[in-house]
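From the shared-data thread, chain only:
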Amino acid sequence: MTAMNAHANDLATADALAPIFKASGDPLRLEILRVLRRDTFGVLELSQMFDMRQSGMSHHLKVMHKAGLLEPQREGNAIFYRRPLHLDSDTLTDQTIRQIFETVDRLPLARHLQDKIDAIRRQRAEQSQAFFARHAEQFREQQELIAAFELYAEPTAELIRRRAERQPWQSALEIGPGEGGFLPVLSELFEQVVALDNSRDMLAKATRTCIEARLDNVDLIEGVTDTLLARGDAFDLVVANMVLHHVPSPADIFLDAAALMNNGGCFVVSDLCSHDQNWVKENCGDLWLGFEPEELTRWAAEADLVAGERLFIGLRNGFQIQVREFWKAPMPA
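Structure, as tokens:
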């Protein structure tokens, strides 16, 4: 390489790095990166969080997006922002962005910002609970607008059965059991099963399912994962069937699942891949329009879970379901 070519490459690298350092050279933008460590927030939510006009927040987000520090995620008619999913290359720009993230993540999040994040999550949770309170009797019909229960329940059950044959598992937790359709599978495979739901109406339907199917080893609990963490519960398997798109902070479910699992335990998730069918928000109570597989993998990695088998199920109505497993070390051979 000639000296002139080397100099040209150096300039090209500098030109690529300059926007990254410029975009991150602002205390407010660093705080935005902090709050987006695991969560995804809309422009309006971020504006409220930082007490600024939406136009001002949009400007900051645009600069950060152009520099590669953030990427937009369309959720129906709203634009949300998250950290980039793909920073896997060894290019200097990706290395620089990863280093910025690692640095800001060492800083403690200000208490007032955490309080505002908690308030947004509560608001999302209340929105979801209100939907299920209104539509508890039509739950199955609402869900089957997207996918029939059997389409994702049977592959998920088969995956768990294959794993349970080789693992000395005894206890299982299902987060968000809905009407309890998956509980007979877990009741058959495990000595102890806990079903956790924050909707009293849905828990009542799951209770009826347990009574009719005589599932004597299922304990139904009204609450959230914090409820079980406070009790010190631990499980060999945690299952979340078509639940993540209803929860305020899907990334936190991975952290909580990891904390609730014994070593060698497994977290099995079935959920929608990203889609653009906004009608599900109103008709099915969805908070999120599915997820990129890389999102689940990243959230799992941040919870020290290792990705295992994956299965993708295409549906005729344009939706796609992903069934994923994530292990808490040590993983089985």
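The radius of gyration is 22 Å.
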